[in-house]
UniProtKB/TrEMBL annotation:
Ranges of residues in domain Cytochrome c: 211-301
InterPro entries: Cyt_c-like_dom, Cyt_c-like_dom_sf, Cytochrome_c-type_DH
Gene Ontology MF terms in the entry: electron transfer activity; heme binding; metal ion binding
Keyword Transmembrane helix listed: yes
Membrane-crossing segments per the record: 12-37
Protein name as annotated: Thiosulfate dehydrogenase
Classification via PROSITE patterns: CYTC
Pfam families: Cytochrom_C, SoxA-TsdA_cyt-c
The UniProt record lists the keyword Transmembrane: yes
């Protein structure tokens, strides 16, 4: 009896321990699934590069309190306007600029294939998405770049020549009038002279160091490459009317005199809006990541263009205008990448 019982007992023990192991495994897997649904952050299974961890700060805090934020008027109400058709055409041109005015534009061929909306999200209506809320209320205004009073038509043509690296629209063209009509409609509730909360671009707090293109490339490879591609050229639409994902550098991108070529504009735009889907309420990049990715993208090739009449008074140049001469002592290199705090202080003293 003993001789037969021993192997039998061993078999029972083996089966029992297998059962225990299996239920343990089920328990662990169940717990992991529970955790991932309950929103707890699990450690990534993939090895992260060492430097990447330094910049990979989780971000979840809203950049601004949503109460009091500017909101675009209800689009459905546009039909009550006497010039509803003009306003609608203006919005259409801003959303689908390339189709009308790009390299194969059906109205004119005067720009590089970008849409205004690529940088002025949802036709310029998104809080901190480079919106047009202050366009009607603050123009005409004297700007340091031109040294003259600019009206809204001049400002629009500024983006055509720089951000869309192209030509200008005649002031009295149907297209220019439509864009202006749309911006006036958007800003109808903003009192003259005022800039509403959430207008334009978020100001990312300044770093104590220079923005770093090498760290920026790591951010790019992790957070941007899926859409804007490794070569930065994005994804063109098959029908040639523009981009699904716009290019970030190279010959089809904005030129070196465009707003986004300034580090603070790029970092601020991206911080509140990229990777696509991020918002000021749900930003996805840390401040360092935003500055560093700006440094990476803006250190790669893009069109150059001379505007000899820019900045007639050099003391009006912003801290991050990367072309001298300057009224202060800092180098072009520091004006491009920072650290910006000392420059900002010097500029404040000059005033
Ligand atoms: C590559 C990005 C980009 C594209 C494309 C672009 N813009 Fe801009 N635009 C900017 C930036 C950056 C600013 C400056 C924002 C700031 O400094 O706060 C700006 C500012 C403006 C302003 C001034 C807003 C204000 O409140 O002062 C207007 C108006 C404007 N753009 C119109 C246009 C129009 C119209 C188009 C299309 C023809 C266009 N932009 C395309 C990046 C772009
Ligand atoms: C999921 C896709 C996606 C990801 C990821 C993404 N973007 Fe974008 N990006 C877009 C789209 C789409 C637009 C144009 C938005 C529109 O037209 O509504 C855009 C526009 C832009 C623009 C302005 C237009 C231009 O071509 O200059 C910049 C700058 C930009 N993205 C930077 C970044 C950076 C930096 C990252 C990484 C931190 C990033 N994006 C990640 C999809 C993406």
């Amino acid at each position: 009896m003993k001789e037969i019982g021993k192997p039998f007992l061993q078999l029972i023990t083996l089966v029992l321990s297998l059962l225990v192991l299996a239920s343990l495994l089920v328990g662990v897997i169940g717990f992991v699934i529970y955790l991932s649904y309950s929103g707890v952050n699990l450690p990534a299974f993939k090895e992260q590069p060492v430097v990447a961890q330094v910049v990979n700060t989780p971000v979840s805090k809203a950049l601004m309190d949503p109460s009091g934020m500017w909101q675009a008027p209800d689009w459905a109400s546009v039909d009550t306007e006497p010039n509803a058709d003009e306003i609608k055409y203006g919005r259409e041109l801003i959303a689908n600029t390339s189709e009308y005015l790009g390299p194969n534009g059906k109205v004119k061929k005067i720009s590089n294939g970008l849409n205004c909306q690529n940088c002025h999200l949802q036709a310029g209506t998104v809080p901190l998405g480079n919106n047009y809320s202050a366009a009607a209320s603050t123009y005409p205004k004297v700007r340091g770049r031109s040294g003259t009073s600019e009206d809204i038509e001049m400002r629009i043509n500024g983006c055509f020549q720089r951000s869309l690296n192209g030509g200008v629209l005649p002031r009295d063209s149907k297209e220019m009038k439509a864009m202006v009509a749309y911006m006036n409609w958007l800003g109808q509730d903003v009192p003259k002279g005022e800039k509403p909360v959430g207008a334009g671009i978020y100001e990312v707090p300044l770093l104590d160091r220079a923005a770093d293109p090498v760290k920026g490339k790591l951010v790019y490879d992790r957070q941007c490459v899926a859409c804007h591609m490794a070569d930065g050229q994005g994804l063109a639409k098959a029908d040639g009317t523009g981009y699904t994902y716009p290019p970030l550098w190279g010959e089809h991108s904005y030129n070196q005199k465009a707003g986004l070529f300034r580090m603070s504009r790029f970092a601020g735009y991206v911080k509140a809006n990229m990777p696509f889907g991020a918002t000021y309420e749900n930003p996805m990049l840390s401040d360092e990541e935003a500055w560093d990715v700006a440094a990476y993208v803006n250190s790669l090739d893009r069109p150059t263009r001379d505007f000899p009449n820019d900045w007639p008074d050099i003391s009006k140049k912003p801290m991050d205008h990367p072309f001298g001469p300057y009224a202060d002592e800092f180098s072009e290199e520091q004006h491009k990448f920072g650290p910006f705090k000392p420059i900002k202080e010097a500029i404040a003293k000059l005033k």
